[in-house]
Model the fold of this input.
Amino acid sequence: HYIRAMFCDSMELEGANWVDDLPDEFEKRRGYSLLPYLPFVLKKVGHMGNPVDEDYGTVFCDTVSEEIKRVGLDLYKTRIELFKERFLDTFNDWCHRNNVKSRMQAYGRGLHPLEASMEIDIPEAETWLSGDLGKSYPDLGLNGRAPRMSNKYVSSGAVLAGKRIISCEEITNTNIVFIASLETIKIAGDQTNISGINHSILHGFNYSPPDAPFPGWVRYGTYFNERNTWWPYFPKWAEYKTRISYLLQNATPRANIAILQPLTDLWLKHGPQRDPFPQKWYPDYQNNLWEAINQNGGGCDYVSEKIIKNSIFRDGRMSYNGRSYDALFLPGIETLDIDTAKSLTEFAKEGGKIIFIGVKPFKSPDFINGNENDAAVKKITEDLMKNKNVVLYPAPEGEVINWYKKMQDELGLKPFVRFVKTNKFLNQSAYLIGGAPMFFITNTSLSEHISVKAEFQADEKLSSWIWNPETGKKYLYPGLNGRNNELQLEIPRAASLMIIFEDNSKGEVYKPISIQGQGKELSGSWSLNLKYINGQESSFVIGSLADFPDSEQAKTFAGEIIYEKRFESDDKEFSCLDLGIVHGVSELIINGETIGSKWYGEHVYDIGSSVKKGENIIRIKITTIIGNYIKSLKDNPVSKTWTRRNEYRPLGISGPVRVI
Done:
């Protein structure tokens, strides 16, 4: 009665590729013998089962090379089928016989990266924390993103199977274990939710016995520990994440586009990959297409050929188990099963949009009757191109966001929200909750404030509301020009918005704190009191906020920095205090009154009537990361393992601090 589920981590099967009756099963399922081809389809493998790139000696002509690749594809398909039947189904059956749910990261070699998650009660993905999050990142690839490619596979498979809970191994990391801030953790988590995840599991919460030397045991995880400096503020992140998760688990993600990922071509060209960390991908933008769709206000699910063949086509839409799409993307797909091609013909006849990106399918994956089936697929594709609903669109060259914006406009792909200007740090996912349109919108930059106009696909008669997931409070969010579905969004760095359209127009109006105007800078000297994590204290005065001591003692500090300053206030009323650039969690006290704390984004406080005429005393407590101190523990093996690649990080307030 107390165990919800049994869990299995991702399939890190190294080089496992065999079972005793594999040749017999191969011949039974594929219709020919594998044995003559074994010397050509079994490759040397290295770390995590990744194929070793080396010259095997013999060079074949193109025809023979293509045949060998198709045999290799058939071998991989056979392994997927056997692994499902003999492990996945067995695991599921065992769980259900014992009255618990199955929970699994159902990807990696040996499993279909999308369809396997459809079999699991609680499918799970994974998100990794890295030092490049929230900063400048490349247009293509996985760098700068917390979600792995497996996240979108898993979330797509889950919703296609009607799953409500989609879990995630979240905030795992191997390079910023001790320098991760709550702000960086929030950014990674927001990206996780955008990828379709709604239930976070902190695999990185490490067990450590009390007698283990400080900082204790750490293994592949963020330092979630009561010894961490920011641990007292951890509940703030947890409450935020809990409310987001509750909403998303009770909402239905919206998608107007289905994407057939070119897995067959990827496997033919490069072999199966190790999700969630593929070595190679095809095409080069494959990991970023879903991202660009969301960044342009749309929504999508990945589908497989099996999903397409089992879909219903009617009135211009492709429907499967309650999910429905009016457009199907085929990015870089050269190879298509004949029955899938026939299904595309049926979809096009029913008015559905089919968009081939970069190339049209021209062959089948079949080894038996390959030439005949290749010709059949090519003929079906050529006939499809005569339908006005079928388009061949150029593939992106480099940057994907604006390429997709152009395609979306040219092909009439209506988004759920249209941003006047896209931004690579601006992202969204659209939902329906109780029939009401709901949008989770994020700014995952650590430095950039995003101001953008947005037009939402929602009835103008509905009122727009902003729900604050930190506090649970709801506010009316007035629209522009009398239109409730047209909003001016102000999203500070590392911030997020939950916007919902309801048939209710009565409530408190949202009034964000404004930091516009010059205000009054609190320049000059500050008194500092440093409370070290090891119990020591020191005090000194700095001439300006930019003058934090550049000493070894200060560089390796971890703990609390108390900034104190006295300033005079005349008859002018001040409404807010802006701390400027802050490295850490801030807590503000004015004239002995605690105003509040900020753990991410702009550290702007509503000071209201707290500032009085005459002299005021301002105290700002900054709780730093623990990483600089851990790095200084030169003889500690845990420190040497996890901080050797880290630079010392800035601490405290850089400012400028202004009253406005």
